[in-house]
Design goal:
Layout lengths: L29 H11 L26 H7 L7 H13 L7 H10 L5
Helix pairs in contact: 1-3
């Protein structure tokens, strides 16, 4: 799978993040952005599932820093998260997903990777 295969088609420049040391913008809470996306999709009935279980090595807090991308590549974000949600929602709505979350959790439990 290429690094851009999960990016919306109008965002072909999406690439894996460069190593970073500090954040340059306010943090975005994943559950809040998930709720915003669900709302944009007209699915206010969807709630993020936060089981509170973590595997060894899971990254629980992650902050993006585009400083190196700006310095090395001249990258500057042109779209705020809230402004880009309608386009993301349109792309998400066109995807086909096979839900296997319960199966994945059961397998992790069987391997004692989560409680």
């Amino acid at each position: 799978m290429s690094p851009t295969s999960c990016a919306p088609p109008s965002r072909p420049w999406a690439r894996p993040p460069l190593p970073a040391t500090r954040s340059t913008s306010p943090p975005v809470v994943a559950s809040r952005s998930s709720s915003s996306l669900a709302s944009e999709l007209g699915r206010e009935d969807l709630e993020p599932e936060l089981p509170g279980e973590f595997r060894a090595g899971d990254i629980r807090h992650c902050l993006a820093d585009t400083t190196r991308a700006r310095e090395l590549l001249g990258f500057e974000a042109e779209t705020e998260l809230a402004d880009g949600l309608p386009e993301l929602a349109e792309w998400v709505a066109g995807q086909t997903v096979t839900e296997r979350g319960d199966e994945a959790v059961a397998e992790m439990r069987a391997r004692n990777l989560v409680g």
